[in-house]
Amino acid sequence: MKTNQYPGFHKLSVQERAAEAAEFSGLTEEELGCLTNPGALSLETANHVIENVIGTYQLPIGVAMNFLINSKEYIIPMVVEEASVVAAASNAAKMAREAGGFTTSYTGNIMIAQVQCIGVANPFFARQTILHHKQEILDIANAKDPVLVKITGGAKDLEVRILDSQIGPMVVTHLLVDTGDAMGANAVNTMAEAVAPTIEQLTGGTVKLRILSNLADHRLARATAKFTKEAVGGEDVVDGVVAAYAFAAADPYRASTSNKGIMNGIDPVIVATGNDWRGIEAGVHSYCARSGRYTSLTRWEKDANGDLTGSVELPTPVGLVGGATKIHPAAQACVKLLGVTTAAELAQVIAAVGLAQNFAALRALATDGIQKGHMKLHARNLATVAGATEGQLDEVVAKMISAQNISVEYAKEILSSL
Ligand code: NAD
């Protein structure tokens, strides 16, 4: 496969798809085996990753096609249990491609570590005292991670905030650390612990928590895309998507589900690449509430030509080194399949996938409704649960859809009549 545009890719067998994807990304036989072999993560390795290991757990890996991001073609590995996610992402990427695909940018790999200091008599004076000693504090932090300092410069800056709280004022110092290609939680937590005694000395207070923030708003990935009115099915559809977005922008109940649809695209890539999906979930949802009211992560507008334009900006605490990213053989193979070489590139791909997934969901909601496409794939799952073999699946699914009865019981009834 030379291009990620491959009509009929979904009709290939699993083995054929895997071979085509491996050719596209230059995966070796061994690397491909890490994706196709259910035992890629050995029990021995798993036992080093978490505690009390009793086994491993499998999920499907699919690949989203058609993505063009900053003029580079990607196939996107997605580890997910929900039907229709991969198909919807591929379809949205195809539509975006007609106007040039996705354009992205990134603010840098800067993570925040928070140091909470309480019992400070004069917090405003203390704040400035900490800032006067910025270089001394950064030097203490950096002494903890010479490897990171060599690669990125490590801790770069400080912010000091004063918070009113139930237990009185708090002086909260943010260490801003360039964590390079690492997500950086361990790296910045170690630094936060190291600077705590100096902050106590400078403020006369007591340091309590020393921990990163997942609201990584110095580590933002941005993506935009244009969908021509012709590609999406007309100006009515453009208006429908804008109206659907306006609902999410105005209402936290709707925003919650709209943003879940965005995470349908993002989380599977996070999982595939061995990253911390709880961290990115926490970051995204807190970023959506930063104004004080929870709202949509994306924005959708109609441009002067009547075409649809979408944009997204999100915190992206993700990495290619550290944590489990280098331990899980399938995660390593997925990173190679994706073809990203830096955390910055991964972050921007994630932003583009999130935008694509949101577009697909809003377009479906604004036109046929979400169930039409979803139920077809859901019917396949239910037919499998009912015991349909590979050869029976298409017929059972077709009958369920034509009878508009998508249930395991009905699938069993069809099977018994075959
Ligand atoms: P880590 O400590 O395993 O690796 C990071 C270290 O790798 C750096 O400190 C540096 O010394 C070294 N390194 C080598 N090459 C590098 C490069 N090119 N760029 C950057 N660093 C390089 O991992 P981490 O990223 O600090 O922490 C990630 C782990 O922390 C994940 O497992 C995550 O689940 C976990 N965690 C997350 C949270 C959270 O709130 N999200 C909290 C605690 C822990």
Task: Indicate the percent of residues in helices.
Answer: 40-55%
Which segments are poorly predicted (pLDDT under 50) over 5 or more consecutive residues?
A: none
Under CATH at level 1, the class of the largest domain stands as Alpha Beta
Gross CATH architecture of the largest domain: Alpha-Beta Complex
Q: What average pLDDT do the residues reach?
A: 96
Major beta sheet, strand line-up: 3-8-10-9
Question: Main sheet, how many strands, which sense, barrel?
Answer: 4 strands, antiparallel
What compounds sit in this structure? nicotinamide-adenine-dinucleotide
Number of domains: 3
Distance between the termini: 38 Å
Q: What is the CATH topology assignment of the largest domain?
A: 3-hydroxy-3-methylglutaryl-coenzyme A Reductase, Chain A, domain 2
Number of helical stretches of at least 4 residues: 17
Report Rg.
24 Å
Question: How many DSSP E strands?
Answer: 10
Global outline: globular
N-to-C series of helices and strands: HHHEEHEEHHHEEHEEHHHHEEHHHHH
Estimate the strand proportion: 15-25%
Task: Classify the secondary structure makeup into a structural class.
Answer: alpha+beta
